[in-house]
Write a structure and sequence with these properties.
Layout lengths: L9 H11 L9 E3 L9 H16 L4 E5 L9 H13 L7 E3 L4 H13 L3 E4 L3 H7 L17 H13 L8 E4 L14 E5 L13 E3 L1 H11 L4 E5 L6 H11 L8 E5 L2 E3 L6 H9 L14 H7 L3 H11 L6 E3 L1 H15 L2 E2 L1 E2 L2 E6 L7 E7 L9 E7 L1 E5 L3 E2 L9 E2 L3 E4 L4 E9 L5 E8 L19 E2 L2 E2 L4 E8 L25 E8 L11 E4 L3 E5 L8 E7 L5 H6 L1
Parallel strand pairs: 1-2, 2-3, 8-9, 10-11, 12-27, 14-22, 18-19, 20-23, 25-29
Antiparallel strand pairs: 4-5, 5-6, 6-7, 13-26, 14-17, 15-16, 17-24, 20-21, 21-22, 25-26, 27-28, 28-29
Length: 560
């Protein structure tokens, strides 16, 4: 890692300074500590890239530690999804850890705090404790149970552990101060009673540690050197350090908590609670709905791990929360898919094109390049015949001067094929065009080297042979929310901004080479955008999700 501070973010500067102050480089260890109560979202992706990126840069281990201290909201499904997402993003963790691994040690330490007179069992109701805690401008008052004897506290705490009491009857609190300026230091709760089945420890425990008690102590047990949290945990740092002071051994590494700002993404929400609402109220089809800001949803939509990592690196790490325009993510997606996605033919709003002078019953196979960005060019064969599908918007019966696609009396090139000229149309009883008739220049075949093939025309359009076309379901996605910051106004329910047109399902036609495509295969549908194969797809029915368009049209629409 370079020590040129101008090239380092403030997190890296902290690490570099600690190394200068004597911390051995082999003592560096980082962690990513998700709570398994939902799927990871784009905000978590930034934290993953930060912590695992530091691990790569400093050749230091990174733990994946699950903060599984609330069994009422946690499930094995979420653990599995989190591991899958981290691996998909391209990262490997050193140790897979769980706060529940440390339940016995945390309990033993809590007993020691009671014995030292630094923790007590409080039997007030949660409402009474809230009043007794005071306000940011007024001091709190001592609990009537604050001066219980050590013996009584030990007895009650053990009975809490054994499950003798109902939820809410007792809690264990740290005895710090009821006059602290930091409200979190006013005798914070360390344990609460919960008669809930834990996904790893079963019914072994009837009490569960609070996050603030488990967090720093878990870091310490794992010998994490730097514990990076989002900015809302800044007030918790004082408590993090107080708890560490009670158990810290100077022969070991003392973890250091530092904070960075969240990076919120426009036109979406990154609160697991709100994402859960969207799922439970069926506004989306699940946690991996391609409109969701979850990593699983973005993966299903066709966004690549490389694009997400590039996005995280582009927005960087900051000390101030801000809203990142989703168009920046779209840019990173286009930039990556442009390099890796094969170009294919697909028609999503078809109208039939008949080449009247093409021989009846004839077909030929034309050579088409897969991706012009490839270092070593590869090609595939495309079937061509007398009848084709083209995009309805690629034809105008009476075109204006700036329309460079097909119209009557004008010429365009069919991509990888021939130059054609519009001759006439066939309409139904309502006046809708059902067929476009054209003629082709037999000598104008792309790549043939003839004079006619080198002739310049103003437009090129894509097509699919009707005899060979494969029908496909295409899911066209838009922003899930119409407002750039849907949860920015606390007086307005964020769901009021849900975009009713965030999904359009259409039937299109694709070239036959896509028949063998597999889930998450990426393609550029030429002139239409980037698409990927959905998990609902099968050999009987292809299903594609639109990942992103070829250019940013949303910003232009929004500016109007």
């Amino acid at each position: 890692m370079s020590t040129e501070e101008k090239s380092l973010n403030f997190i890296e500067q902290i690490i570099e300074q600690d190394l200068k102050n004597g911390l051995s480089k082999d003592k560096l260890r980082f962690r990513f500590p998700p709570e398994p109560n939902g799927y990871l979202h784009i905000g978590h992706a930034s934290a993953i890239c930060l912590n695992f990126g530091l691990g790569i840069d400093y050749n230091a281990p990174v733990n994946l530690r699950f903060d599984d201290t609330n069994p009422s909201k946690e499930e094995q499904e979420f653990v599995d999804a989190i591991k899958r997402d981290v691996e998909w993003l391209g990262y490997n963790w050193d140790n897979e850890c769980y706060a529940s691994d440390y339940f016995q040690q945390l309990y033993d330490w809590a007993v020691e705090l009671i014995k030292k007179g630094k923790a007590y069992v409080d039997s007030q109701s949660s409402e009474d404790m809230a009043v007794q805690k005071g306000t940011p401008t007024t001091p709190g008052t001592d609990s009537p149970y604050r001066n219980r004897s050590i013996e009584e506290n030990l007895d009650l705490f053990e009975r809490m552990k054994k499950g003798e009491f109902e939820k809410g009857t007792h809690v264990l609190r740290a005895k710090i101060s009821m006059n602290a300026n930091n409200m979190l230091m006013r005798d914070p709760i360390m344990y609460r009673i919960m008669h809930a089945h834990h996904h790893r420890t079963g019914n072994d425990w009837c009490i569960y540690p609070m996050y603030d008690w488990a967090h720093g102590e878990s870091d310490y047990l794992e010998q994490v050197s730097h514990s990076f949290c989002t900015l809302e945990f800044l007030p918790h740092r004082e408590l993090y350090d107080w708890f560490l002071n009670q158990i810290y051994d100077e022969t070991k590494v003392r973890p250091k908590q530092r904070e960075f700002a969240r990076r919120n993404l426009s036109h979406t929400v990154v609160s697991k609670r709100k994402l859960l609402q969207l799922v439970e109220e069926n506004h989306v089809t699940g946690w991996d709905d391609p409109r969701m800001s979850t990593i699983s949803g973005m993966r299903r939509r066709g966004i690549t791990a490389t694009a997400i990592r590039n996005f995280a690196n582009t927005i960087g790490i900051a000390k101030r929360t801000n809203l990142i325009d989703v168009s920046l993510l779209d840019f990173c997606v286009r930039e990556d898919l442009n390099k890796v996605a094969p170009r294919v033919m697909a028609v999503l709003n078809p109208v039939k094109l008949v080449i009247t002078n093409y021989p009846e019953g004839q077909e030929e196979w034309l050579e088409a390049e897969n991706n012009p960005e490839e270092e070593v060019m590869t090609y595939r064969q495309l079937p061509f015949s007398k009848e084709l599908y083209i995009e309805r918007e690629d034809f105008q019966e009476e075109a204006h001067k700036k329309f460079f696609r097909l119209s009557l009396g004008t010429e365009v090139r069919l991509k990888n094929a021939y130059i054609i000229k519009g001759e006439s149309v066939v309409k139904d009883a309502e006046g809708n065009i059902t067929e476009i008739h054209c003629t082709y220049d037999v000598d104008s075949k792309s790549g043939s080297g003839t004079e006619a093939s080198k002739r310049k025309v103003k437009g090129t359009i894509h097509w699919v042979s009707t005899a060979h076309a494969v029908e496909a379901e295409v899911r066209v996605y838009d922003r899930l929310f119409t407002h750039e910051n849907p949860d920015g106004n606390k007086d307005v329910d964020f769901k009021e901004y849900i975009n009713p047109n965030s999904l359009e399902v259409i039937t299109g036609y694709v070239e036959p080479s896509l028949q063998s495509s597999k889930e998450l295969d990426h393609f550029q549908f030429q002139r239409l955008g980037y698409f990927c194969v959905d998990r609902d797809s099968s050999s009987e029915k292809l299903v594609f999700n639109k990942t992103v368009g070829l250019r940013d049209t949303w910003t232009k629409v929004e500016s109007k």
